[in-house]
Amino acid sequence: MTSNIIIAKGAYSVTLQTVEVSDNLKNEIRLIVLPTTKQNQAAGPKTNKAIDLLKITHSMNIRGIIMTTADRDNLIKIAKGADIAGSPATLTYSTYPGSPLSVFVTELNIVEASLDRDTSNDRKYQVQITVLEGVSA
Questions:
Q1: Per-residue pLDDT for 69 more than 60?
Q2: What gap in Å lies between CA 27 and CA 47, rounded to an integer?
Q3: Of the candidates 99, 98, 95, 105, which has an alpha carbon nearest to the alpha carbon of residue 128?
Q4: Cα 88 from Cα 52, distance rounded (Å)
Q5: What's the CA gap between 47 and 32, in Å, rounded?
Q6: 3-class secondary structure, 105
Q7: C-alpha span between 110 and 50 (Å, rounded)
Q8: How far apart are CA 37 and CA 35, in angstroms?
Q9: Is the pTM of this model over 0.85?
Q10: DSSP string for 12-80
Q11: Which residues pair with 18 in a beta bridge?
């Protein structure tokens, strides 16, 4: 079971009721392909050498739900920079080691669905957000 996630930047803060959280770590490995010459061709291909520079990129894909139009508007403002150029947002995820994290929103998708009630104020927003961990350069 997942926990709620709070994403905040500047004056804006939104709590997502999470449905699914996936962690993605990508390590850029450099390969050195060793050449095969005529003289050593009969020995078969050589094993490539790998260099691990520990250039690790950490991103998270979060699926969740928000219940108010104000939260939707605030999440859009956070994704657009929250009137603070170049600085990351803060993501707090209580069950995640190292939380809170400094993150940049790289993708945001919001789907609006009406609830089964008669009032026009009842809304439910399904959110898909991708964040990249990092600090300002």
A1: yes
A2: 20
A3: 105
A4: 27
A5: 9
A6: strand
A7: 41
A8: 6
A9: no
A10: EEEEEEEEEEEEEEEEEEEEEPPP--TTTGGG-PPPPEEEEEEEEEEEEEEEEEE--HHHHHHHHHHHT
A11: 64
Q: What is the pLDDT of residues 80-131, one digit of tens each?
A: 988 887 899 999 998 888 889 999 999 999 998 866 655 555 568 999 999 9
Q: Confidence band (pLDDT; 50, 70, 90) for 2?
A: low
Residue carrying the six token digits 């699926």: 63
Burial of 30-53, coded b for 16+ CB within 10 Å and e otherwise, reads eeeeeeeeeeeeeeeeeeeeeeee
Instruction: Return the SS3 of 128.
Output: strand
Phi first, then psi: give them for residue 72, nearest 5 degrees. -60, -50
State which amino acid sits at residue 76.
Answer: I
* Alpha-carbon gap, residue 133 to 105, rounded angstroms: 9
Q: Is 89 exposed, middle or buried (0-12, 13-18, 19+ CB in 10 A)?
A: buried
Specify the pLDDT at position 119.
Answer: 55
Residue 41 pLDDT greater than 70, yes or no: yes
